[in-house]
Amino acid sequence: GLVSGRKLFSPKTPGFGLADDENSSGDDEDDSDHEGVFFLRSNSMGGGGDSTDDMLVDLIGVGDNDSTYHNTADDMQQHNIIMGPSRLSLRNLLNLLAFGASVFIHYGIGVWGLNGILPTISEVTATHRTLITPADWTHWIWAVIYALEFVFVVAQYLPSYRSRPVVLQGVSYFFVYSCLAQIAWTMFYSFCMFLISFICQATNLASLCFLIVSQFLSQSRNEGRMEYFLLRFPFSLHVGWVFVETAVNFSIFSQHM
Fold this sequence. Notes:
Blueprint: E1 2-3, E2 8-9, E3 18-19, E4 35-42, E5 55-62, H1 73-83, H2 90-111, H3 113-116, H4 121-127, H5 141-155, H6 165-171, H7 174-190, H8 194-218, H9 225-231, H10 233-256
Parallel strand pairs: 1-5
Antiparallel strand pairs: 2-3, 4-5
């Protein structure tokens, strides 16, 4: 942003800047005699969009006798109006579309089998059992995984979460890659093409691992439990089960060869 004033220094309140300002008569005063507190104002308020990336900083003088910032209700309301809600990004939309497509293909082909046209995932697994094939009831974990990821998809659309670094920089496009790999795996696995399905599942695993690491590196220091369970926990459960699925798929491919 642009700062009107002559000198900046660190304030006691995080996220705010203080600066010296010139008085209205044009006479300069000593730095210790005159302080200022700024309010952020978007340069788009004049009718050019609602972006908050470009900011102007207005310095409002505060005398020595004033020991607190302007924290009145009017100032807070003005600040909320100026900043406004964060805008939806392309990543938020792609997360929704990719998740919807993954659920549709997984249950339409993998569970329903297109009404008997294709074998289901359970049928393929039953005819190609290995020593590490899990019990049939364990596949219900997909319902839990998709339910938790649905919560994430909804949460990342909310104004309070959509622009969080753990969503934009952490999830990035890795969740989209994971969903696409999951779709490809479901289709190739139903056709008993185990080599290609293994490659797709390994790609899914790699995408989720990168997502987990990226979220860990971009998490905020004051991350609460709610933010963790909404934005990070679903992928921790997902990547754990995909480890199992990747090993089973490799075992099936080895046995098939």
